[in-house]
């Protein structure tokens, strides 16, 4: 079916007057009023919302907030999963000229307190009872907080705290104000300007407290167009919104693309049904962080291992054809008729069904961004016909670069976006011209001044431009390591290669104190390793028990040996530990976007790391654990230390 050729363009003149997100909602209401724009899966049925519906919700929620005293320049926070209410609240607040901060739904009370307090939020819009309970714990510590508005009343409607109000009650307040002051909403939206701050998006906080990046309406629209110059969006596109709304990717690729070009946003029924909804919908756009692509590849490989012997044989027969075809494309060559025919047969017999089973058969330009994706995973997806491409960007700059159709190589993140000024410093730091970047860090002028030294934004990332003008991203400057013999290595690259294994969920690479060699601490993928153990009738009870089984350690040893074959001799993994517990964001080991807090981890597991490099065969580890209800305890476990390639 032919695509509707309405795409986002930075030269699209009819979009120029719409310099704020609410103005785009108003424009779309007039242009596409009865067209279905958003859909939400509820009780197995897709509930549809037209642009007229969206306009009405945004309008009355904005007027309701105005009744509650929200004014231009104020801030609200939103916490919850991806739902239409999340974005109605955002757009309604922005229509009043207020700033919006996104919180992570799994955040602990003290994390929510920091974000609400630092952003000066006067209102928090929350999804359900779980979020409301967290906010009620900390409300007395937030003097600016006036209201907590919830959109899912289950379990909350009988609460009698005066700070609480339902989403529908706010809508009703807005409807009353509309009767008293017709055209107030339209007048307020018209007064908005592109220079006003639309969002305060907080950084991951891998090495310090998160900083609030201020992003104006003008910038988020500009960044949406910039991203679309690399990944075109079409009016007929289907998009599944499940990436965290407090993350810039969802604001650009989801909301901005929907507002700018009219692609349809679809919201999953709940977090647990994302995979099911993904398969049902099979969206045209898919931008996922590396951990999710790694998870998809693991699920695929485990599924193959669990199928019949005949199907496994067919898969293993055709996969090398896919790899060969992908390698030819990576070289920039045109495959011969012979290889095209073989690949056509492979796709017909194996790959098409594999993609369809995981909801990936319609996606045109699947992308990954956020951190390094291992070349093994990148090559695997290309082999089965998913033309995954790398993109690079950060919260403070939007999209910096991305791969076009003729630039598909695992080791680059493509050429810089058209019109973007970028350079590499003498220290190999990636710098972006200030004019293309965010407006600064909220209430932190010192950090802003430091970030923009010399008129360029200092990303803190290491990289270089190759002869073809492709940007090669290496790692965070602060994370690059060097051994005693001068061998340089990127821990993130090795960690990503380890996580290509379906049996490894997370990994952290550590350096021996004297700089002699490197080792790794890994987390098993409990469901996959559990299935593997059950097929071999290996008994186990808990995650801890399974992680220390001799057979599992042998399996992990094989995976480490596989990775070592792809690494220079000096930077190969010498020892590893299978940790007795999963890395957990609730214990500050990971950020809410699942990035390693490397410094914190190295400090927390310092004794374990020391034992590994002292040559001990095992070590007793005592680790504090924080449960979701806030309780804390200590667990004590004996963890084995193994040399790679020296297993019994």
Overview of this protein structure:
This protein has three domains: 13-269, ANL, N-terminal domain (Rossmann fold); 288-475, Rossmann fold (3-Layer(aba) Sandwich), CATH 3.40.50.12780; 480-643, ANL, C-terminal domain (GMP Synthetase, Chain A, domain 3, 2-Layer Sandwich), CATH 3.30.300.30. It is an alpha/beta fold. The longest helix is centred in the middle third of the chain and has 22 residues, at 309-330. The strands form six sheets. Strands 7-6-5-3-4-8-9-19 form an eight-stranded mixed β-sheet, with helices on both faces. Strand 22 (481-482) and strand 23 form a beta hairpin. It is 39% helix and 22% strand. It is built from 21 helices and 28 strands. Residues 1-15 have low confidence and may be disordered.
Low-confidence stretches: 1-15
Helix segment tally: 21
Give the averaged pLDDT, no decimals: 89
CATH homologous superfamily name of the largest domain?
A: ANL, N-terminal domain
What structural class results from the helix and strand content? alpha/beta
The CATH level-2 architecture of the largest domain is identified as 3-Layer(aba) Sandwich
Strand order of the largest sheet: 7-6-5-3-4-8-9-19
């Amino acid at each position: 079916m032919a695509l509707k050729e309405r795409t986002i363009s930075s030269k699209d003149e009819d979009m120029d007057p719409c310099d704020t997100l609410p103005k785009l909602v108003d424009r779309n209401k007039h242009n596409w009023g009865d067209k279905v724009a958003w859909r939400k899966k509820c009780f197995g049925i897709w509930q549809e919302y037209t642009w007229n519906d969206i306009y009405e919700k945004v309008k009355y929620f904005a007027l309701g907030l105005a009744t509650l005293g929200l004014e231009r320049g104020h801030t609200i926070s939103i916490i919850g999963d991806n739902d239409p209410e999340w974005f109605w609240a955002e757009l309604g607040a922005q229509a009043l000229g207020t700033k919006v901060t996104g919180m992570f739904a799994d955040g602990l009370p003290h994390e929510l307190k920091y974000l609400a307090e630092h952003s000066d939020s006067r209102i928090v819009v929350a999804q359900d009872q779980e979020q409301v309970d967290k906010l009620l714990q900390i409300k007395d510590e937030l003097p600016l907080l006036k209201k907590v508005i919830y959109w899912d009343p289950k379990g909350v409607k009988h609460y009698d705290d005066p700070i609480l109000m339902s989403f529908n009650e706010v809508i009703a307040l807005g409807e009353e104000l509309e009767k008293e002051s017709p055209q107030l909403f339209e007048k307020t939206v018209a007064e908005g300007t592109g220079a006003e701050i639309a969002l305060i998006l907080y950084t991951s906080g891998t090495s310090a407290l998160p900083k609030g990046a201020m992003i104006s309406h003008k910038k988020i629209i500009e960044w949406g167009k910039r991203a679309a110059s690399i990944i075109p969006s079409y009016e007929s596109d289907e998009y599944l919104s499940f990436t965290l709304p407090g993350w810039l990717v969802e604001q650009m690729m989801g909301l901005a693309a929907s507002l700018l070009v009219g692609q349809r946003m679809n919201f999953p029924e709940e977090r647990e049904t994302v995979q099911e909804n993904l398969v049902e919908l099979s969206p045209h756009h898919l931008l996922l962080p590396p951990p999710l692509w790694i998870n998809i590849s693991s699920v695929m490989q485990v599924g193959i291992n669990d199928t019949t012997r005949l199907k496994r044989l067919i898969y293993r027969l055709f996969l090398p054809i896919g790899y060969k075809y992908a390698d030819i494309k990576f070289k920039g060559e045109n495959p011969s008729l012979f290889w095209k025919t073989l690949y056509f047969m492979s796709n017909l017999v194996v790959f098409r069904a594999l993609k369809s089973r995981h909801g990936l058969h319609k996606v045109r330009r699947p992308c990954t961004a956020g951190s390094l994706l291992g070349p093994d995973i990148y090559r695997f997806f290309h082999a089965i016909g998913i033309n995954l491409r790398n993109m690079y960007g950060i919260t403070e700059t939007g999209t910096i670069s991305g791969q076009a159709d003729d630039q598909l190589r695992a080791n680059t993140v493509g050429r810089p976006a058209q019109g973007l000024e970028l350079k590499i410093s003498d220290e190999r730091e990636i710098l972006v011209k200030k004019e293309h970047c965010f407006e600064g860090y909220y209430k932190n002028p010192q950090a802003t001044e430091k970030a923009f030294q010399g008129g360029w934004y200092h990303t803190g990332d290491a990289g270089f431009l190759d002869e073809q003008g492709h940007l090669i991203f290496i790692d965070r400057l602060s994370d690059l390591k060097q051994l005693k013999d001068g061998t340089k290595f990127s821990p993130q690259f090795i960690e990503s290669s380890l996580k290509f294994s379906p049996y490894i969920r997370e990994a952290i690479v550590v350096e021996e104190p004297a700089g002699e060699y490197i080792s790794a601490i890994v987390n098993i993928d409990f469901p996959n390793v559990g299935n593997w153990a059950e097929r071999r009738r290996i008994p186990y009870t808990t995650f801890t028990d399974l992680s220390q089984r001799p057979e599992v350690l042998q399996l992990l040893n094989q995976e480490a040996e596989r990775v070592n074959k792809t690494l220079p001799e000096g930077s190969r993994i010498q020892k590893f530990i299978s940790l007795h517990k999963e890395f957990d964001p609730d214990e500050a080991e990971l950020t809410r976007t699942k990035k390693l807090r490397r410094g914190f981890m190295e400090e927390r597991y310092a004794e374990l790391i020391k034992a590994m490099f002292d040559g001990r065969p095992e070590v007793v580890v005592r680790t504090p654990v924080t449960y979701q209800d806030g309780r804390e305890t200590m667990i004590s476990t004996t963890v084995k230390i193994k040399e790679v390639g020296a297993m019994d």
